[in-house]
Amino acid sequence: MSTLRFQALKDVSARKPVKFEEAARKSAIFGANVFNDKAMKQFLTSDAYKGVKDAIQHGTKIDRKLADYIAMGMKEWAIAKGVTHYTHWFQPLTGTTAEKHDAFFETSYDGSEVLEKFGGGQLVQQEPDASSFPNGGIRNTFEARGYTAWDPTSPAFIFGTTLCIPTVFISYTGEALDYKTPLLRALNAVDEAATEVCKYFDKNVKKVTATLGWEQEYFLVDTSLANSRPDLLLTGRTLLGHTSAKGQQLDDHYFGSIPSRALNYMRELEEECMYLGIPVKTRHNEVAPNQFELAPIFEETNLAVDHNSLLMDVMSKVGERHDFKVLFHEKPFKGVNGSGKHNNWSLATDTGVNLLSPGKTPMSNLQFLSFFINTIKAVQEYEELMRASIATASNDHRLGANEAPPAIISVFIGQQLTKVLEELEGVTKGKLSPEEKTDLKLNVVGKIPDVLLDNTDRNRTSPFAFTGNKFEFRAVGSSANCANSMTTLNSIVAKQLKEFKKEVDALIDNKGLKKDEAIFNVLREYIKQTKNILFEGDGYSESWEKEAKKRGLSNHKTTPAALKAKVSKKALDLFQDLNVMNHVEVEARYEIELEEYTKKIQIEGRVLGDIARNHVIPTAIRYQNTLIENVRGLKEIFGKDFEKIAKEQIFLIKEISSHIEGINSNVEAMTEARKKANVLTDAQKMAEAYCDKVKPYFEIIRSHCDKLELLVDDEIWTLTKYRELLFTR
Ligand SMILES: NC(=O)CC[C@H](N)C(=O)O
């Protein structure tokens, strides 16, 4: 009997839901471990408090002396809560979070005194020797160093017994070495551009904040079962495994009663989130067996991105306490739904208006339409860049099937708004007659709120869908750091809004149009120009692929093909012009993402080769030997008649041999392809070679292995099966 698999199954059958006592009133614990406004008021002097507030609201610099006071207050607050260490918490270009803990504990120079210390210097800037993070050639390990700098817009928090201070990670030559810095710059750019446009409608708007509400999908697999699968452990997904007879066909898991162990896990996870100020709200079973989802209330984008990164870490840690491995991979199992991280995005003013929500008056609706149409125009202009922003080796498996959007970026707005746009397309060029103005006000712009109320359209195959008061970027993958997609989206919208302002102003200044006439005129042209990006149909159909091609939309099915758009002149100029990233920073990210792609496929290839040869083949041979023995025995008993009697066994023996041959020859060929790819020096070429020459072997090898799984005696099969991974809980 294959011990690891069966031991794991035994472990699982003995598991009980882990007991957990939770606070009934979540509002009482929300943010208790965050150095939030309440804590700051309690632990900071009024000058220090004002300093942090100014920095958050207006980006004012905090001087060293003030930083000392802030640090002192922060330390006192943390120590009162049992904290012993602090860390600058950052998001290097690996996409995950990084931390290096230092104790508050210090000794005086002669060792005669011991104390807890934490000064402004340690709060504001640090130099972790983080030389091994990917940097895409920005910094050489032996020269330009990187440093982390405090980001006061995201509050410090306590995780375990460590005070975590959110920071940006920058090289001494000034280039961003993380995901957060370009995001902050993009948020700044969209704030500036959107505030200017808002002034057409309301002069009081001083700031526009991009908001984000992510939805985190994930799978839970029992730790013992996960540990019995080398592929899950090393690559986050199953590289082989025959599909389970029952999968998600019956839709009986989706929104079903949450399994007890999973529910207790969620309860403890949510409690942790509450302490950390992550406003989690929704939990449910997703479509695939053992797949779940968690979603918070939307927040300001920078904070939401930090919270999602932190959440993924917390999810894994709480998972350990409940004997679960949390799978964030976009496609851990073939044949059932993958996991996304839909990014619900909008813009909100400091006067409390959601710019993507239709308003009560024609003027506020014209404002809504301006932002709505400009967003569509931005996506249309930069569809390839949007695709590039979600490109990873793991997301490639997810796109285009099982409720995940395809690789073609399009925008879904629903029937009702499509009609509104059609009507606006007919607006007269230049000045509008009083009758037309009244008609627009009453019958087109004025009608939008009613129209949206009964707009129940939903399209699960759309990568970018309008959902009533926000856009949902559905193409983002579950393992992604949202900063990548959010930097792109906010940048392209910023750029587009600037363009819009320029065009409207030109019509007002040069053509003598009134403000609303000018806006209608520009929007009309945008509606005409953006038709090719709007799509309401089935994103999986072959006809859409053909149609999209005709419309000139890109369809990059693989990451190496998709990433190229990142370094197009258009993209480089966009980021440069908005001061989001200079060319070096963009090129570095492109290089890093290609390398990450190559390495992931390389690891998968090696793991697959190993499992196929060292697990599958030996097991198949063992079973084949049993069959051979059986045939020999039959021959002994039945003499020349044995061939008829042992016909099926002989057939199986041959089948097994042919699959073994299939595995061996293809693993061999894959290894050769890898060797060839490995000598390439250009990152793009290498990634392409891994994509086009190495990866195709995965499916071939897998299919031989999966067929053997169906032939071989279940009792000796070493790899935990799909039905066990997906249905044991
Ligand atoms: N119900 C859903 O929204 C499914 C979404 C799907 N899991 C995805 O990958 O995006």
Mean pLDDT: 93
At CATH level 2, the architecture of the largest domain is 2-Layer Sandwich
| CATH class assignment of the largest domain | Alpha Beta
CATH superfamily of the largest domain: Glutamine synthetase/guanido kinase, catalytic domain
Distance between the termini: 23 Å
**Mass-distribution shape:** globular
CATH topology of the largest domain: Creatine Kinase, Chain A, domain 2
Number of helices: 28
What small molecules does this complex bind? glutamine
Structural class: alpha+beta
Largest sheet data: 6 strands, mixed
Percent of residues in helices: 40-55%
Number of domains: 3
Poorly predicted regions are none
**What fraction of residues sit in β-strands?**
5-15%
Q: If you compute it from the alpha carbons, what radius of gyration comes out, rounded to the nearest whole angstrom?
A: 29 Å
How many beta strands in the DSSP annotation?
18
GO molecular function: glutamine synthetase activity
Domain GS catalytic: 179-616
Domain GS beta-grasp: 84-174
Protein name: Glutamine synthetase type III
Describe the structure in your own words.
- The chain is of the alpha+beta class and 729 residues long.
- The strands form 4 sheets. Strands 1, 2, 5, 6, 7 and 8 form a 6-stranded mixed sheet that branches. It has a 6-stranded mixed sheet with strand order 13-9-15-18-17-16. A 4-stranded antiparallel sheet has the order 11-12-10-14.
- The chain is globular and about 105 Å long.
